[in-house]
Design goal:
Length: about 190
Amino acid sequence: MTGRDAPSELLEIVSGGLGWYWDGTAVTAPAAWTNAALPDRTAALTHLAWQARDAESAHPATHAASRLALAAAQEAWAWGVALAAGADIPTFRLLPRWLAHDPPDVQLEACVRLLAAARTGVLPAAPYRCAVCPADQNLHLVVHVRCTGPGLQEWRCGLCVRLPTDPDTVPEPLDVLYRRQPGRDDDRP
């Protein structure tokens, strides 16, 4: 159903990444994925998004790869609805500009998430950790409203939930308090 066939070697890399994902280890983009042309990586994402178009999205998309996977699956779903309604539209395909702002490792993780969704029927949950610091407990889902499209969702710990969206606007007293917390890195964003 894709407008451009996904290169089989890239789909093999995604399939291998699924093994890492099930094991709970980080998905690392190999050189073959990173060096592949953006249109080829886009074709792989398109192919997997089409397969995962009917997957349930039961979890919030709170990091870059989960947001990319969700957006691609939703786009494929909308195309599927249009095709089922008899719309005269071209073959489903995502454009490389969809992926241009995301690094290759994020693109690969999004593809792995789509493959997992195609096989299980549910888009996998994003990691449960704070978007600002490495905390993985006492998390709150924060939604930032955007002008168009869905809001940006992210997990924030009890301390970071008080931080403004733009890290450059953190007031000095709050920054000092943050740095005094045990287990916090001084080189946070």
